[in-house]
């Protein structure tokens, strides 16, 4: 009687958890990962019980990682026999995880996790199934939270293993490993023991065998408490994510192939959300999050406080550039593409005598200068070391670098701006300024008309 109550207790607890998270609908087809360990065997029997009450279908998937020789093969045979006894279809995959880890340039632990998920998704698609069920429990969840904490994760990482994530479900997160093993023992259901779980080769194993062991001695309910905290973090993250989206709309501007985080607007965002705004933008430009670390977000945050013109390189071929308005985050090839796409640009000149009372219209790409002031041969080029321009009628000069700084021209754009140059003296910064020393006056005899054609001419419309 006690055994029956224990079994019913775990089943009812899990069913209540399933309803709470709306994990499984009546009649759905569930693909379940079955390794042969206590957790996955328990999951299988929970799902088999739901077959009777909810009319669901179950397909088991077993992945032999080919890492433990005969022990792994014995696990495979055990799962196949268990599924045969319970009339559950079973798909077995034999994948050399050691080779996969080498090919994917990751740890065997990570490669194993990836190939398991890939195998289960493959079966889900081929079988037209609805959900993929994993056997992670409370202790696994606590270990995940601690691992993420050690890695410096933010609130998002403190959520641990999510009960539901798209088509992925975790029905056993409400029960602990000891509870699972006790229920299986009392029902006489066998399971396989993976001896490598007792070794400290992997980070998770060290946390399980050392850290959790110590924490459980302090409080046997540690895993349950950490799991509850993870649920609270999940609720907090849901709120933060929504708020972050609002702040992104306020302080991020779309650019060609990138995004500009505007400094003034970001400074009005509450401090707790600033790094989330930066991270969200960075993830979107990078189209991934895997290799992004807290240090990259902090580097961008630090760049905002630096002078315009500074830049940093980031993962996925992304560059962050400090502009006068804020920080532009953009793929490096996008910057290159923009330069390559610019059409040819040139200029033509026409020289004529000045006529008394003649007026010259103010047009963006045609300007008039005193021809006799020109000392050498006019050329069109981009900036060089030593360039300068006369900015006042009384002859005050300014270096081109200082002019660009004063005009808040983005550093990444300064090498693109066309110049009409007379040696190192700039006659015309196209789209920005004409040299005062070359202006037409009452003493002017000959006038040179310079017209720019083709290309984008500059980054401005005047």
Question: What does the secondary structure layout of this molecule look like, with pairings?
Answer:
Elements: H1 2-20, E1 29-33, H2 38-54, E2 57-64, H3 70-85, E3 90-94, H4 97-104, H5 108-127, E4 131-133, H6 138-150, E5 164-165, E6 168-169, H7 177-187, H8 203-218, H9 222-251, E7 252-255, E8 258-262, H10 263-267, H11 271-286, H12 294-304, E9 311-314, E10 318-322, E11 326-331, H13 332-341, E12 345-353, E13 366-370, E14 379-381, E15 388-390, E16 397-399, H14 400-406, E17 419-422, E18 425-429, E19 433-434, E20 446-454
Parallel strand pairs: 1-2, 1-4, 2-3, 4-6
Antiparallel strand pairs: 5-6, 7-8, 8-11, 9-10, 10-11, 12-20, 13-20, 14-17, 15-16, 17-18, 18-19
What's this model, at a glance?
The chain has 462 residues and is α+β, with helices and mostly antiparallel strands. The protein has helices at 2-20, 38-54, 70-85, 97-104, 108-127, 138-150, 177-187, 203-218, 222-251, 263-267, 271-286, 294-304, 332-341, 400-406, and strands spanning 29-33, 57-64, 90-94, 131-133, 164-165, 168-169, 252-255, 258-262, 311-314, 318-322, 326-331, 345-353, 366-370, 379-381, 388-390, 397-399, 419-422, 425-429, 433-434, 446-454.
